[in-house]
Design a protein that fits this description.
Elements (H helix, E strand, L loop, with lengths): L4 E6 L5 E7 L8 E4 L10 H6 L6 E4 L16 H15 L5 E6 L1 H12 L4 E7 L6 H10 L10 H14 L6 H11 L8 H8 L2 H7 L4 E6 L4 H5 L8 E6 L6 H4 L1 H12 L29
Parallel strand pairs: 3-4, 3-5, 5-6, 6-7, 7-8
Antiparallel strand pairs: 1-2, 2-4
Length: 293
């Protein structure tokens, strides 16, 4: 397992962005990992530690999450994308780079790819949030500013939802609590990431990316929308991995790193699904969506 360093960069406006990096010694383009909302770059720690020594890989806490400073106003996905590219350039100044996005991070990666097609080489994604207008409305109603109460009922409801999505055989309640803590670090503004996601034209951005895109259709809450990417664009391929869901980057980090690196190291002009690990083909957890009532 590789050593992970933690660091800060200061953006032009003075805001600080927190990052984690596994420094490699080879000439391969660096891999920028972008987490989902409302989590932090901590979700990639074991993944970063599993990446080969010949590649530098890093993950920032997107602004407003983890230990990164929050913006002055609710950002759009394009704002998150611009901040992370600026942070990447301060940290490494690469000519070209690869990306690995997770849900909201997939949207940010696609926006970077559409904005900087000559620099964004290959993109891997956990989930492709291709949402209908009806779904956007339903999700916007679900993900709203928190309403704290003195008896903690709002935290209990959030904890139950978190456990439903993240619990699987072998995962302890202690491990879930550690991950849950990251989900709370956005504070009262932690819903900003979802707000940006529901306003983003993800399909337009994904279509504008020039390099190959690998989408992992994991067994989670974006399984249905992600299926809509299948056969949609010639540079996008979808891998069906139902045995992987929320938390798989912790319990199967080595296999995930191997899969993503096989995609990144493939021929420059080709796009295909690499061989899939056996663990990715296991049963889906949870077996069904969480009831809303």
């Amino acid at each position: 397992m590789r050593r992970i360093e933690k660091f800060y960069v200061t953006l032009e406006g003075g805001r600080q962005v927190h990052g984690r990096i596994a420094r490699g010694s080879g000439p391969k383009p660096p891999l920028l990992c972008i987490h989902q909302s409302p989590m932090s770059g901590a979700v990639f720690e074991r993944f970063l530690a599993s990446i080969s020594d010949d590649r530098t890989a890093l993950a920032f806490d997107t602004p407003g999450f983890g230990m990164s400073d929050r913006p002055a106003a609710p950002p759009a996905i394009a704002d998150y994308a611009a901040d992370l590219v600026e942070a990447l350039d301060i940290a490494l100044a690469p000519d070209r780079f690869d990306m690995f996005g997770f849900h909201t991070g997939s949207m940010i990666a696609a926006r970077v790819g559409a904005t900087l097609p000559d620099r964004a080489r290959r993109i891997a994604m956990i989930g492709a949030p291709i949402l209908t207008q009806e779904e956007r409305g339903e999700l916007a109603a679900l993900y709203h500013p928190p309403v704290p109460d003195f008896d903690g009922a709002f935290l209990q409801a959030r904890w139950r939802s978190f456990v439903h999505h993240h619990r699987r055989p072998g995962v302890t309640s202690e491990a879930l609590y550690e991950a849950f803590r990251e989900a709370l670090m956005g504070g009262m503004d932690g819903w900003w990431g979802h707000r940006a996601a529901f306003a983003e034209n993800f399909e337009e951005a994904l279509a504008a990316c020039r390099g190959p895109v690998l989408v992992l259709k994991t067994g989670d809450d974006l399984e249905g929308p992600t299926a809509r990417a299948q056969g949609r664009w010639p540079h996008v391929v979808v891998a069906d991995v139902p045995g992987w869901g929320h938390g798989f980057l912790d319990f199967d980090a080595a296999c995930a790193a191997q899969l993503i690196e096989r995609f990144l190291d493939a021929r420059e002009d080709g796009v295909s699904v690499p061989p899939l690990p056996a663990s990715s083909q296991g049963p889906r957890y949870p077996g069904k969506p969480m009831p809303t009532d």
